[in-house]
Amino acid sequence: MKPTPINKEIVLDPKRYIVSETDEQGKITFCNDYFVEISGYSRDELLGHSHNIIRHPDMPKVVFKLLWETISHRKNINAVIKNLAKDGRYYWVFTEFESRSDTDTGKIIGYSAARKTISKHVIEIISGLYAKLLEIEKEKGVDASEEYLSSYLKNKDENINFQNFMENIHKFY
Predict the structure, then answer these.
(1) How many CA atoms lie within 13 A of 57 on its CB side?
(2) Class of the CATH-defined domain 18-172
(3) pLDDT tens digits, residue range 114-149?
């Protein structure tokens, strides 16, 4: 059962990374001590469970759709994510996602993610965008949300897409 979100942010240590690895289905196979500490879950509660155990309901589904589309094609991607701790508090992170492949077969065997804190200014900008995307998803679905995001990005720069927007978000703002 998901915790009920409460409006209290967990302040992250800017010198530490939250690290996890999953299998190809998104089930957690490794988590570092800082992930355990910040999430509030025990290592046993995390290992073998879907990574969406920490998904905050404020996160639009389109973000994860785009993330999965990218990493499943062996392309790395960065994204700003709001996560939900076991006790209902939240934390914002800048996450670097990478796919991991079997060296012999080349088949994707899992994914890794390293997360770090991000500036309040970026959070203010992205939280407004995410709220709008979530509103559209609730009314019209994920496809409509993706269309809005595409239009939003094109208004910023004709050549920008979600992937390079996220890669450069700390440079833009």
Answers:
(1) 9
(2) alpha beta
(3) 999 999 989 988 999 999 999 999 999 999 999 999
Tally Cβ neighbours within 10 Å of residue 147. 14
Structure tokens, 35: 């992930």
The domain limits of the chain are 18-172
Which has the higher per-residue pLDDT, 119 or 46?
46
Least confident of 19-23, 109-113, 148-152, 169-173: 169-173
How far, in Å, CA of 134 to CA of 149, rounded?
11
Give every strand in the sheet of 77-84, ordered side by side. 28-31, 18-23, 108-116, 90-101, 77-84
Residue listed under structure tokens 């703002």: 173
**How confident is the model over 82-118, as pLDDT tens digits?**
999 999 999 999 999 999 999 999 899 999 999 999 9
* Encoded amino acid at 115, one letter: R
Q: How far is CA 97 from the centre of its chain?
A: 8
Sign of CA dihedral 35, 163, 57, 23: negative
- Cα of first residue to Cα of last residue in the chain, in angstroms, is 36
